[in-house]
Write a structure and sequence with these properties.
Blueprint: E1 9-12, E2 19-22, H1 26-40, H2 50-59, H3 68-91, E3 97-106, E4 111-120, E5 126-135, H4 142-155, E6 162-167, H5 171-184, E7 196-198, H6 200-213, H7 217-231, H8 233-245, H9 262-274, H10 276-285, H11 287-290, H12 297-317, H13 331-346, H14 351-380, H15 386-397, H16 400-440, H17 460-469, H18 474-480, H19 495-500, H20 507-516, E8 535-537, H21 539-542, H22 546-589
Helix pairs in contact: 3-22, 4-5, 6-12, 6-14, 7-8, 7-9, 8-10, 9-12, 12-13, 13-14, 13-15, 15-16, 16-20
Length: about 600
Protein backbone atom coordinates (compact mmCIF):
# COMPACT_ATOMS: atom_id res chain seq x y z
CA UNK A 1 0.00 0.00 0.00
CA UNK A 2 1.42 3.37 -1.03
CA UNK A 3 1.26 6.26 1.42
CA UNK A 4 0.82 9.80 0.15
CA UNK A 5 3.01 12.36 1.91
CA UNK A 6 1.51 15.85 2.07
CA UNK A 7 3.87 18.77 1.87
CA UNK A 8 3.76 20.86 4.97
CA UNK A 9 5.38 21.65 8.28
CA UNK A 10 6.71 18.68 10.20
CA UNK A 11 5.56 18.29 13.80
CA UNK A 12 5.79 15.83 16.67
CA UNK A 13 2.82 13.56 17.22
CA UNK A 14 0.85 13.87 20.46
CA UNK A 15 2.77 10.97 21.96
CA UNK A 16 6.02 12.77 21.15
CA UNK A 17 7.70 9.67 19.70
CA UNK A 18 7.05 10.17 15.99
CA UNK A 19 7.17 12.96 13.43
CA UNK A 20 3.99 13.66 11.48
CA UNK A 21 3.37 15.99 8.55
CA UNK A 22 1.10 18.92 9.33
CA UNK A 23 -1.25 20.43 6.77
CA UNK A 24 -3.62 23.26 7.59
CA UNK A 25 -7.28 22.35 7.14
CA UNK A 26 -9.51 25.38 7.54
CA UNK A 27 -12.74 23.40 7.88
CA UNK A 28 -11.23 21.17 10.56
CA UNK A 29 -9.93 24.21 12.45
CA UNK A 30 -13.32 25.96 12.35
CA UNK A 31 -14.94 22.76 13.58
CA UNK A 32 -12.49 22.64 16.49
CA UNK A 33 -13.39 26.24 17.37
CA UNK A 34 -17.05 25.27 17.54
CA UNK A 35 -16.27 22.27 19.72
CA UNK A 36 -14.20 24.50 22.02
CA UNK A 37 -17.28 26.71 22.42
CA UNK A 38 -19.49 23.68 23.04
CA UNK A 39 -17.20 21.76 25.39
CA UNK A 40 -15.99 24.69 27.50
CA UNK A 41 -19.33 26.53 27.38
CA UNK A 42 -17.89 29.72 25.94
CA UNK A 43 -20.33 32.37 24.69
CA UNK A 44 -20.93 32.42 20.93
CA UNK A 45 -19.51 35.95 20.88
CA UNK A 46 -16.03 34.72 21.84
CA UNK A 47 -15.23 34.51 18.12
CA UNK A 48 -15.50 38.33 18.08
CA UNK A 49 -13.62 39.05 21.31
CA UNK A 50 -10.81 41.41 20.46
CA UNK A 51 -7.87 39.55 21.98
CA UNK A 52 -9.23 36.15 21.03
CA UNK A 53 -9.27 37.32 17.40
CA UNK A 54 -5.72 38.69 17.79
CA UNK A 55 -4.59 35.37 19.22
CA UNK A 56 -6.15 33.37 16.34
CA UNK A 57 -4.74 35.72 13.70
CA UNK A 58 -1.28 35.38 15.25
CA UNK A 59 -1.50 31.65 14.64
CA UNK A 60 -3.16 31.79 11.22
CA UNK A 61 -3.80 35.20 9.63
CA UNK A 62 -6.09 33.63 7.02
CA UNK A 63 -8.41 32.06 9.61
CA UNK A 64 -11.91 33.37 8.78
CA UNK A 65 -13.63 35.79 11.13
CA UNK A 66 -16.93 34.52 12.53
CA UNK A 67 -19.78 36.62 13.87
CA UNK A 68 -21.92 35.51 16.81
CA UNK A 69 -24.82 34.84 14.43
CA UNK A 70 -22.64 32.73 12.13
CA UNK A 71 -21.25 30.73 15.04
CA UNK A 72 -24.76 30.05 16.31
CA UNK A 73 -26.02 29.00 12.87
CA UNK A 74 -23.07 26.72 12.10
CA UNK A 75 -23.17 25.04 15.51
CA UNK A 76 -26.80 24.19 14.79
CA UNK A 77 -25.69 22.65 11.48
CA UNK A 78 -23.03 20.69 13.36
CA UNK A 79 -25.71 19.45 15.78
CA UNK A 80 -27.94 18.28 12.90
CA UNK A 81 -25.01 16.48 11.30
CA UNK A 82 -24.12 14.68 14.54
CA UNK A 83 -27.78 13.89 15.19
CA UNK A 84 -28.07 12.16 11.80
CA UNK A 85 -25.00 10.06 12.61
CA UNK A 86 -26.47 9.02 15.95
CA UNK A 87 -29.82 8.26 14.30
CA UNK A 88 -28.05 5.93 11.87
CA UNK A 89 -26.24 4.28 14.78
CA UNK A 90 -29.54 3.66 16.58
CA UNK A 91 -31.03 2.10 13.43
CA UNK A 92 -28.25 -0.52 13.43
CA UNK A 93 -28.76 -1.51 17.07
CA UNK A 94 -29.56 -5.17 17.61
CA UNK A 95 -30.40 -4.67 21.29
CA UNK A 96 -33.01 -2.82 23.32
CA UNK A 97 -32.48 0.61 24.85
CA UNK A 98 -33.23 1.82 28.37
CA UNK A 99 -34.06 5.44 29.12
CA UNK A 100 -33.82 7.91 31.96
CA UNK A 101 -35.94 11.04 32.10
CA UNK A 102 -35.42 13.90 34.53
CA UNK A 103 -35.86 17.64 34.87
CA UNK A 104 -33.36 20.49 34.74
CA UNK A 105 -34.09 24.06 35.79
CA UNK A 106 -32.71 27.36 34.48
CA UNK A 107 -32.00 30.33 36.74
CA UNK A 108 -35.20 31.85 35.32
CA UNK A 109 -37.04 28.76 36.65
CA UNK A 110 -37.72 27.42 33.16
CA UNK A 111 -38.02 23.64 33.10
CA UNK A 112 -36.16 21.39 30.68
CA UNK A 113 -36.85 17.71 30.20
CA UNK A 114 -33.75 15.59 29.65
CA UNK A 115 -34.17 12.17 28.02
CA UNK A 116 -31.09 9.93 27.95
CA UNK A 117 -30.72 6.63 26.09
CA UNK A 118 -28.61 3.81 27.59
CA UNK A 119 -27.55 0.63 25.83
CA UNK A 120 -24.75 -1.91 25.57
CA UNK A 121 -23.09 -1.81 22.16
CA UNK A 122 -21.87 -4.68 19.98
CA UNK A 123 -18.49 -4.56 21.77
CA UNK A 124 -20.30 -4.96 25.10
CA UNK A 125 -19.48 -1.47 26.30
CA UNK A 126 -22.03 0.63 28.16
CA UNK A 127 -23.18 3.62 26.12
CA UNK A 128 -25.34 6.60 26.95
CA UNK A 129 -26.45 9.60 24.92
CA UNK A 130 -28.70 12.52 25.75
CA UNK A 131 -31.23 12.37 22.92
CA UNK A 132 -33.46 15.29 23.92
CA UNK A 133 -33.13 18.35 26.10
CA UNK A 134 -36.26 20.36 25.57
CA UNK A 135 -38.09 23.20 27.26
CA UNK A 136 -41.40 22.10 28.78
CA UNK A 137 -43.94 24.84 29.35
CA UNK A 138 -46.64 24.76 32.00
CA UNK A 139 -47.22 22.04 34.56
CA UNK A 140 -45.55 18.65 34.19
CA UNK A 141 -48.64 16.46 34.26
CA UNK A 142 -48.49 12.76 33.53
CA UNK A 143 -50.19 13.08 30.14
CA UNK A 144 -47.80 15.80 28.96
CA UNK A 145 -44.75 13.84 30.16
CA UNK A 146 -45.89 10.62 28.47
CA UNK A 147 -46.67 12.43 25.20
CA UNK A 148 -43.30 14.20 25.26
CA UNK A 149 -41.35 11.04 26.02
CA UNK A 150 -43.05 8.92 23.38
CA UNK A 151 -42.74 11.66 20.75
CA UNK A 152 -38.98 11.77 21.43
CA UNK A 153 -38.66 7.99 21.18
CA UNK A 154 -40.60 7.97 17.90
CA UNK A 155 -38.45 10.80 16.57
CA UNK A 156 -35.39 8.60 17.05
CA UNK A 157 -37.15 5.47 15.72
CA UNK A 158 -36.57 3.69 19.06
CA UNK A 159 -40.19 2.83 19.85
CA UNK A 160 -39.68 -0.86 19.00
CA UNK A 161 -36.44 -1.04 21.00
CA UNK A 162 -37.61 0.23 24.40
CA UNK A 163 -36.67 -1.85 27.43
CA UNK A 164 -36.99 0.29 30.59
CA UNK A 165 -37.63 3.86 31.69
CA UNK A 166 -36.13 5.15 34.95
CA UNK A 167 -37.81 8.07 36.71
CA UNK A 168 -37.92 9.58 40.16
CA UNK A 169 -40.92 8.91 42.37
CA UNK A 170 -43.09 11.94 41.54
CA UNK A 171 -46.81 11.21 41.08
CA UNK A 172 -46.82 12.68 37.55
CA UNK A 173 -44.04 10.29 36.52
CA UNK A 174 -46.05 7.30 37.72
CA UNK A 175 -49.01 8.43 35.60
CA UNK A 176 -46.73 9.05 32.60
CA UNK A 177 -45.26 5.54 32.73
CA UNK A 178 -48.68 3.94 33.06
CA UNK A 179 -49.85 5.79 29.94
CA UNK A 180 -46.75 4.77 27.96
CA UNK A 181 -47.20 1.12 28.96
CA UNK A 182 -50.90 1.16 28.09
CA UNK A 183 -50.28 2.68 24.65
CA UNK A 184 -47.16 0.67 23.76
CA UNK A 185 -47.74 -2.63 25.55
CA UNK A 186 -47.19 -4.76 22.45
CA UNK A 187 -43.81 -3.09 21.84
CA UNK A 188 -42.46 -3.77 25.34
CA UNK A 189 -40.87 -6.84 26.91
CA UNK A 190 -43.52 -8.97 28.67
CA UNK A 191 -46.19 -6.31 28.06
CA UNK A 192 -44.22 -3.70 30.00
CA UNK A 193 -43.99 -5.52 33.35
CA UNK A 194 -40.34 -4.51 33.66
CA UNK A 195 -40.57 -1.12 31.96
CA UNK A 196 -40.91 1.20 34.98
CA UNK A 197 -37.77 1.57 37.13
CA UNK A 198 -37.98 3.94 40.10
CA UNK A 199 -34.93 6.06 40.88
CA UNK A 200 -32.96 4.48 43.72
CA UNK A 201 -31.02 7.65 44.45
CA UNK A 202 -34.25 9.55 45.09
CA UNK A 203 -35.25 7.19 47.89
CA UNK A 204 -31.71 7.17 49.31
CA UNK A 205 -31.86 10.96 49.58
CA UNK A 206 -35.22 10.86 51.35
CA UNK A 207 -34.18 8.14 53.79
CA UNK A 208 -30.78 9.72 54.54
CA UNK A 209 -32.44 13.05 55.28
CA UNK A 210 -34.71 11.29 57.76
CA UNK A 211 -31.57 10.15 59.53
CA UNK A 212 -30.08 13.64 59.60
CA UNK A 213 -33.33 15.15 60.88
CA UNK A 214 -32.98 13.10 64.08
CA UNK A 215 -29.97 15.22 65.04
CA UNK A 216 -32.16 18.31 65.37
CA UNK A 217 -30.17 21.43 66.34
CA UNK A 218 -26.86 19.56 66.47
CA UNK A 219 -26.32 20.01 62.72
CA UNK A 220 -27.02 23.73 62.92
CA UNK A 221 -24.61 24.14 65.84
CA UNK A 222 -21.81 22.25 64.07
CA UNK A 223 -22.45 24.24 60.89
CA UNK A 224 -22.26 27.54 62.79
CA UNK A 225 -19.09 26.43 64.59
CA UNK A 226 -17.39 25.45 61.32
CA UNK A 227 -18.54 28.66 59.59
CA UNK A 228 -16.96 30.89 62.25
CA UNK A 229 -13.68 28.96 62.09
CA UNK A 230 -13.42 28.93 58.29
CA UNK A 231 -14.32 32.59 57.79
CA UNK A 232 -11.68 34.01 60.12
CA UNK A 233 -7.93 33.39 59.73
CA UNK A 234 -7.48 34.13 63.44
CA UNK A 235 -10.16 31.62 64.45
CA UNK A 236 -8.73 29.02 62.07
CA UNK A 237 -5.31 29.52 63.62
CA UNK A 238 -6.78 29.14 67.13
CA UNK A 239 -8.62 25.97 66.06
CA UNK A 240 -5.50 24.42 64.51
CA UNK A 241 -3.59 25.16 67.71
CA UNK A 242 -6.28 23.36 69.74
CA UNK A 243 -6.15 20.42 67.32
CA UNK A 244 -2.38 20.11 67.80
CA UNK A 245 -2.78 20.27 71.57
CA UNK A 246 -5.27 17.38 71.32
CA UNK A 247 -2.89 15.30 69.21
CA UNK A 248 -4.97 15.71 66.04
CA UNK A 249 -3.83 16.52 62.50
CA UNK A 250 -4.67 20.23 62.07
CA UNK A 251 -4.50 19.99 58.27
CA UNK A 252 -7.12 17.27 57.95
CA UNK A 253 -10.14 18.64 56.08
CA UNK A 254 -12.82 20.53 58.00
CA UNK A 255 -15.85 20.75 55.71
CA UNK A 256 -18.83 23.09 55.51
CA UNK A 257 -21.96 21.57 54.01
CA UNK A 258 -24.26 22.66 51.19
CA UNK A 259 -27.93 22.68 52.18
CA UNK A 260 -29.23 20.78 49.12
CA UNK A 261 -26.60 18.02 49.25
CA UNK A 262 -27.15 15.61 52.12
CA UNK A 263 -23.80 13.93 51.61
CA UNK A 264 -21.99 17.20 52.28
CA UNK A 265 -23.81 17.40 55.63
CA UNK A 266 -22.75 13.83 56.36
CA UNK A 267 -19.12 14.69 55.52
CA UNK A 268 -19.27 17.86 57.67
CA UNK A 269 -20.49 15.81 60.65
CA UNK A 270 -17.95 13.05 60.01
CA UNK A 271 -15.08 15.55 59.93
CA UNK A 272 -16.40 17.40 62.99
CA UNK A 273 -16.49 14.13 64.97
CA UNK A 274 -12.78 13.67 64.27
CA UNK A 275 -12.14 17.15 65.74
CA UNK A 276 -14.55 16.75 68.69
CA UNK A 277 -11.86 17.33 71.32
CA UNK A 278 -10.52 20.36 69.44
CA UNK A 279 -14.05 21.85 69.30
CA UNK A 280 -14.46 21.30 73.05
CA UNK A 281 -11.07 22.83 73.82
CA UNK A 282 -11.73 25.91 71.67
CA UNK A 283 -15.18 26.36 73.23
CA UNK A 284 -13.65 26.36 76.72
CA UNK A 285 -11.06 28.96 75.67
CA UNK A 286 -13.65 31.26 74.04
CA UNK A 287 -16.98 30.64 75.79
CA UNK A 288 -18.52 33.88 74.52
CA UNK A 289 -18.05 32.91 70.87
CA UNK A 290 -18.51 29.14 70.99
CA UNK A 291 -19.99 28.15 74.34
CA UNK A 292 -23.64 28.35 73.23
CA UNK A 293 -23.13 26.34 70.01
CA UNK A 294 -20.69 23.66 71.12
CA UNK A 295 -22.52 20.29 71.07
CA UNK A 296 -22.94 18.47 74.37
CA UNK A 297 -21.41 15.05 75.00
CA UNK A 298 -24.83 13.50 74.28
CA UNK A 299 -25.07 15.45 71.02
CA UNK A 300 -21.64 14.18 69.97
CA UNK A 301 -22.62 10.60 70.83
CA UNK A 302 -25.83 10.83 68.77
CA UNK A 303 -23.94 12.42 65.88
CA UNK A 304 -21.34 9.63 65.98
CA UNK A 305 -23.94 6.84 66.00
CA UNK A 306 -26.07 8.35 63.23
CA UNK A 307 -22.97 9.09 61.15
CA UNK A 308 -22.06 5.39 61.28
CA UNK A 309 -25.55 4.50 60.06
CA UNK A 310 -25.50 7.04 57.23
CA UNK A 311 -22.19 5.71 55.92
CA UNK A 312 -24.13 2.80 54.37
CA UNK A 313 -26.23 5.25 52.33
CA UNK A 314 -23.17 7.32 51.46
CA UNK A 315 -21.27 4.29 50.14
CA UNK A 316 -24.19 3.16 47.96
CA UNK A 317 -24.73 6.67 46.61
CA UNK A 318 -21.07 6.77 45.57
CA UNK A 319 -22.00 4.13 42.99
CA UNK A 320 -23.94 6.85 41.18
CA UNK A 321 -21.07 9.34 41.20
CA UNK A 322 -18.57 7.56 38.97
CA UNK A 323 -17.69 8.62 35.45
CA UNK A 324 -19.43 5.52 34.08
CA UNK A 325 -22.99 4.57 34.77
CA UNK A 326 -23.01 1.37 36.87
CA UNK A 327 -24.64 -1.77 35.49
CA UNK A 328 -27.80 -3.10 37.14
CA UNK A 329 -26.13 -6.10 38.81
CA UNK A 330 -24.64 -4.00 41.64
CA UNK A 331 -27.69 -2.90 43.53
CA UNK A 332 -29.66 -5.86 44.90
CA UNK A 333 -26.91 -6.77 47.36
CA UNK A 334 -26.36 -3.17 48.50
CA UNK A 335 -30.05 -2.45 48.98
CA UNK A 336 -30.63 -5.77 50.74
CA UNK A 337 -27.91 -4.84 53.23
CA UNK A 338 -29.55 -1.45 53.81
CA UNK A 339 -32.92 -3.14 54.39
CA UNK A 340 -31.40 -5.54 56.92
CA UNK A 341 -29.51 -2.70 58.63
CA UNK A 342 -32.69 -0.63 59.04
CA UNK A 343 -34.45 -3.67 60.55
CA UNK A 344 -31.54 -4.10 62.97
CA UNK A 345 -31.58 -0.41 63.94
CA UNK A 346 -35.31 -0.67 64.71
CA UNK A 347 -34.39 -3.10 67.51
CA UNK A 348 -31.66 -0.81 68.88
CA UNK A 349 -31.68 0.06 72.58
CA UNK A 350 -30.58 3.57 71.57
CA UNK A 351 -33.80 5.59 71.37
CA UNK A 352 -32.41 8.04 68.78
CA UNK A 353 -31.25 5.24 66.46
CA UNK A 354 -34.52 3.35 66.95
CA UNK A 355 -36.59 6.47 66.17
CA UNK A 356 -34.47 7.19 63.09
CA UNK A 357 -34.84 3.62 61.82
CA UNK A 358 -38.64 3.56 62.12
CA UNK A 359 -38.77 6.86 60.22
CA UNK A 360 -36.57 5.39 57.48
CA UNK A 361 -38.28 2.01 57.24
CA UNK A 362 -41.63 3.13 55.87
CA UNK A 363 -40.10 5.01 52.91
CA UNK A 364 -37.49 2.37 52.16
CA UNK A 365 -39.87 -0.61 52.35
CA UNK A 366 -42.30 1.12 50.00
CA UNK A 367 -39.52 1.52 47.42
CA UNK A 368 -38.29 -2.04 48.04
CA UNK A 369 -41.69 -3.63 47.43
CA UNK A 370 -41.92 -1.94 44.03
CA UNK A 371 -38.32 -2.49 42.88
CA UNK A 372 -36.71 -5.51 44.54
CA UNK A 373 -37.50 -7.85 41.62
CA UNK A 374 -35.91 -5.50 39.07
CA UNK A 375 -32.81 -5.27 41.27
CA UNK A 376 -32.81 -9.06 41.74
CA UNK A 377 -32.93 -9.78 37.99
CA UNK A 378 -29.81 -7.66 37.51
CA UNK A 379 -28.02 -9.56 40.29
CA UNK A 380 -29.16 -12.93 38.90
CA UNK A 381 -27.33 -12.15 35.65
CA UNK A 382 -24.08 -11.66 37.56
CA UNK A 383 -22.26 -15.03 37.31
CA UNK A 384 -20.72 -14.43 40.74
CA UNK A 385 -24.19 -14.40 42.33
CA UNK A 386 -26.93 -15.98 40.14
CA UNK A 387 -30.01 -17.22 42.02
CA UNK A 388 -27.97 -18.36 45.00
CA UNK A 389 -27.20 -14.92 46.36
CA UNK A 390 -30.81 -13.82 45.81
CA UNK A 391 -32.06 -16.81 47.79
CA UNK A 392 -29.47 -16.23 50.52
CA UNK A 393 -30.53 -12.63 51.09
CA UNK A 394 -34.22 -13.49 50.91
CA UNK A 395 -33.70 -16.10 53.63
CA UNK A 396 -31.98 -13.50 55.81
CA UNK A 397 -34.54 -10.74 55.20
CA UNK A 398 -37.77 -12.74 55.55
CA UNK A 399 -39.08 -15.59 57.66
CA UNK A 400 -38.84 -19.05 56.13
CA UNK A 401 -42.40 -19.11 54.77
CA UNK A 402 -42.23 -15.67 53.16
CA UNK A 403 -38.72 -16.35 51.86
CA UNK A 404 -39.95 -19.43 49.98
CA UNK A 405 -42.81 -17.43 48.50
CA UNK A 406 -40.46 -14.60 47.44
CA UNK A 407 -38.09 -17.11 45.84
CA UNK A 408 -40.98 -18.61 43.88
CA UNK A 409 -42.15 -15.18 42.69
CA UNK A 410 -38.59 -14.32 41.67
CA UNK A 411 -38.07 -17.51 39.66
CA UNK A 412 -41.42 -16.98 37.92
CA UNK A 413 -40.12 -13.57 36.81
CA UNK A 414 -36.87 -15.11 35.52
CA UNK A 415 -38.76 -17.84 33.67
CA UNK A 416 -41.14 -15.31 32.13
CA UNK A 417 -38.26 -13.15 30.88
CA UNK A 418 -36.39 -16.16 29.53
CA UNK A 419 -39.50 -17.46 27.76
CA UNK A 420 -40.04 -14.06 26.12
CA UNK A 421 -36.47 -13.82 24.82
CA UNK A 422 -36.50 -17.48 23.74
CA UNK A 423 -39.63 -16.88 21.68
CA UNK A 424 -38.22 -13.72 20.07
CA UNK A 425 -34.87 -15.28 19.19
CA UNK A 426 -36.41 -18.54 17.96
CA UNK A 427 -38.87 -16.57 15.82
CA UNK A 428 -35.96 -14.70 14.23
CA UNK A 429 -34.12 -17.98 13.60
CA UNK A 430 -37.23 -19.55 12.08
CA UNK A 431 -37.79 -16.56 9.82
CA UNK A 432 -34.17 -16.62 8.70
CA UNK A 433 -34.29 -20.39 8.13
CA UNK A 434 -37.54 -20.18 6.17
CA UNK A 435 -36.11 -17.48 3.94
CA UNK A 436 -33.03 -19.59 3.35
CA UNK A 437 -35.06 -22.70 2.48
CA UNK A 438 -37.33 -20.76 0.15
CA UNK A 439 -34.37 -19.36 -1.73
CA UNK A 440 -32.81 -22.83 -2.06
CA UNK A 441 -36.05 -24.66 -3.06
CA UNK A 442 -35.80 -26.79 -6.23
CA UNK A 443 -39.08 -28.30 -7.62
CA UNK A 444 -39.21 -32.11 -7.71
CA UNK A 445 -39.02 -33.52 -11.20
CA UNK A 446 -42.23 -35.60 -10.74
CA UNK A 447 -44.56 -32.96 -9.33
CA UNK A 448 -48.22 -33.85 -8.88
CA UNK A 449 -51.16 -32.62 -6.86
CA UNK A 450 -51.63 -35.90 -4.94
CA UNK A 451 -48.87 -38.09 -3.51
CA UNK A 452 -49.83 -41.56 -2.34
CA UNK A 453 -47.15 -41.48 0.39
CA UNK A 454 -48.20 -38.05 1.68
CA UNK A 455 -50.36 -39.47 4.51
CA UNK A 456 -47.60 -41.65 5.96
CA UNK A 457 -46.20 -40.35 9.28
CA UNK A 458 -42.43 -40.15 9.60
CA UNK A 459 -41.64 -41.58 13.05
CA UNK A 460 -38.24 -39.84 13.02
CA UNK A 461 -40.09 -36.68 14.02
CA UNK A 462 -41.34 -38.43 17.16
CA UNK A 463 -37.84 -39.44 18.24
CA UNK A 464 -36.53 -35.96 17.46
CA UNK A 465 -39.22 -34.42 19.66
CA UNK A 466 -38.43 -36.81 22.50
CA UNK A 467 -34.75 -35.92 22.24
CA UNK A 468 -35.47 -32.19 22.32
CA UNK A 469 -37.65 -32.57 25.41
CA UNK A 470 -34.64 -33.91 27.31
CA UNK A 471 -32.38 -31.06 26.32
CA UNK A 472 -31.28 -28.84 29.18
CA UNK A 473 -32.28 -25.24 28.61
CA UNK A 474 -29.77 -22.40 28.68
CA UNK A 475 -31.38 -21.13 31.85
CA UNK A 476 -31.02 -24.47 33.65
CA UNK A 477 -27.42 -24.81 32.46
CA UNK A 478 -26.52 -21.28 33.63
CA UNK A 479 -28.06 -21.90 37.05
CA UNK A 480 -26.37 -25.29 37.47
CA UNK A 481 -22.85 -24.10 36.66
CA UNK A 482 -20.51 -23.05 39.46
CA UNK A 483 -20.39 -19.41 40.47
CA UNK A 484 -17.54 -17.38 38.99
CA UNK A 485 -14.97 -16.74 41.71
CA UNK A 486 -13.03 -13.48 41.70
CA UNK A 487 -9.77 -13.91 43.55
CA UNK A 488 -8.67 -10.28 43.57
CA UNK A 489 -10.68 -7.09 44.10
CA UNK A 490 -14.37 -7.70 43.32
CA UNK A 491 -14.65 -4.20 41.90
CA UNK A 492 -12.39 -5.17 39.00
CA UNK A 493 -14.80 -7.83 37.71
CA UNK A 494 -16.11 -6.78 34.29
CA UNK A 495 -19.54 -8.37 33.91
CA UNK A 496 -19.96 -7.07 30.35
CA UNK A 497 -16.71 -8.70 29.23
CA UNK A 498 -17.83 -11.95 30.85
CA UNK A 499 -21.15 -11.97 28.97
CA UNK A 500 -19.36 -10.99 25.76
CA UNK A 501 -17.38 -14.21 26.08
CA UNK A 502 -20.54 -16.26 26.72
CA UNK A 503 -22.57 -15.25 23.65
CA UNK A 504 -21.95 -18.61 21.96
CA UNK A 505 -22.69 -20.65 25.08
CA UNK A 506 -25.76 -18.66 26.11
CA UNK A 507 -27.20 -16.89 23.02
CA UNK A 508 -30.60 -16.28 24.64
CA UNK A 509 -29.40 -15.35 28.12
CA UNK A 510 -26.66 -13.09 26.75
CA UNK A 511 -29.28 -11.18 24.74
CA UNK A 512 -31.39 -10.87 27.89
CA UNK A 513 -28.35 -9.78 29.92
CA UNK A 514 -27.39 -7.17 27.35
CA UNK A 515 -30.79 -5.50 27.72
CA UNK A 516 -31.23 -5.89 31.49
CA UNK A 517 -27.74 -4.67 32.42
CA UNK A 518 -28.28 -1.42 30.50
CA UNK A 519 -31.26 -0.61 32.75
CA UNK A 520 -30.52 2.39 34.96
CA UNK A 521 -31.36 2.18 38.66
CA UNK A 522 -30.89 5.95 39.03
CA UNK A 523 -31.82 8.96 36.91
CA UNK A 524 -29.15 11.09 38.54
CA UNK A 525 -26.04 12.28 36.74
CA UNK A 526 -22.70 11.89 38.51
CA UNK A 527 -22.27 15.57 39.28
CA UNK A 528 -25.60 15.83 41.09
CA UNK A 529 -25.94 12.40 42.65
CA UNK A 530 -26.22 13.82 46.15
CA UNK A 531 -28.31 16.88 45.31
CA UNK A 532 -31.98 17.34 46.03
CA UNK A 533 -31.97 20.70 44.30
CA UNK A 534 -32.09 19.32 40.77
CA UNK A 535 -29.91 20.19 37.80
CA UNK A 536 -29.36 23.81 36.95
CA UNK A 537 -28.89 25.36 33.50
CA UNK A 538 -26.26 28.10 33.95
CA UNK A 539 -26.73 31.83 33.41
CA UNK A 540 -25.23 31.94 29.91
CA UNK A 541 -27.11 28.93 28.57
CA UNK A 542 -30.43 30.01 30.07
CA UNK A 543 -30.45 33.18 27.93
CA UNK A 544 -30.43 31.17 24.69
CA UNK A 545 -33.40 29.85 22.76
CA UNK A 546 -34.42 26.33 23.85
CA UNK A 547 -33.36 24.76 20.54
CA UNK A 548 -29.84 26.20 20.95
CA UNK A 549 -29.62 24.90 24.51
CA UNK A 550 -30.60 21.43 23.30
CA UNK A 551 -27.98 21.54 20.54
CA UNK A 552 -25.21 22.57 22.97
CA UNK A 553 -26.13 20.05 25.67
CA UNK A 554 -26.49 17.16 23.21
CA UNK A 555 -23.34 17.96 21.22
CA UNK A 556 -21.25 18.16 24.39
CA UNK A 557 -22.60 14.84 25.62
CA UNK A 558 -22.07 13.15 22.25
CA UNK A 559 -18.52 14.48 21.92
CA UNK A 560 -17.55 13.20 25.36
CA UNK A 561 -18.98 9.79 24.46
CA UNK A 562 -17.25 9.65 21.07
CA UNK A 563 -13.87 10.51 22.60
CA UNK A 564 -14.37 7.79 25.19
CA UNK A 565 -15.22 5.31 22.40
CA UNK A 566 -12.10 6.38 20.49
CA UNK A 567 -9.89 5.79 23.52
CA UNK A 568 -11.34 2.28 23.91
CA UNK A 569 -10.89 1.56 20.19
CA UNK A 570 -7.26 2.74 20.21
CA UNK A 571 -6.54 0.66 23.30
CA UNK A 572 -8.14 -2.41 21.71
CA UNK A 573 -6.29 -1.96 18.42
CA UNK A 574 -2.93 -1.24 20.05
CA UNK A 575 -2.77 -4.59 21.83
CA UNK A 576 -2.58 -6.78 18.69
CA UNK A 577 -0.41 -4.15 16.99
CA UNK A 578 2.16 -4.47 19.78
CA UNK A 579 2.20 -8.25 19.29
CA UNK A 580 2.83 -7.81 15.55
CA UNK A 581 5.71 -5.43 16.25
CA UNK A 582 7.35 -7.99 18.55
CA UNK A 583 6.98 -10.72 15.93
CA UNK A 584 8.46 -8.49 13.25
CA UNK A 585 11.38 -7.62 15.50
CA UNK A 586 12.01 -11.30 16.19
CA UNK A 587 11.92 -12.06 12.47
CA UNK A 588 14.44 -9.31 11.73
CA UNK A 589 16.69 -10.61 14.47
CA UNK A 590 16.86 -14.02 12.82
Amino acid sequence: MKHQVLKGQQMLSQSGDAIATYKYDENASVRLLYYAIIMHEYPFSIAQHRYFVKFIKSLRPSFPSKSRVTVCKEIMELYKEEKNLLYAQFNKLSCRVSFTMDTWTSIQNKSYLCVTAHWIDDHWKMQKRIINFMHVEGSHGGIKLSDTFFANVLNWNLDKKMFALSLDNAAANKVAVEIVIENAKELLVCDGKFFHVRCANHILNLVARDGLSCLGNVIGNIRQFVTIIKRSPLQLEAFEKCAKECGLDPKKTLSLDVATRWNSTYIMIRDAIYYKNAFDRLAKKDKDKYGHINPSSTDWLNATNISKCLKKFYDVTLLFSGTSYPTANHFFRKFSEIKMAIARWCDSSDLVICTMAFSMRHKFDKYWEMNNLALAVGAFLDPRYKHRMIELYMSKMYGSDKAELEKLVFMNVINELFAYYSAVINAKSTTKGSSSRESEFVPHKNTCLVDEEEDEVDLDELYATTSNDKKVSELDLYMSEDLVKVNDNEATFDILSWWKGQVTNFPILSTLARDVLSMQVSTVASESAFSSGGRIVDAFRSRLKPEFIEALVCCKDWKIASEKDLEIEIKTLSEPMNDVDLEDAAAIGT
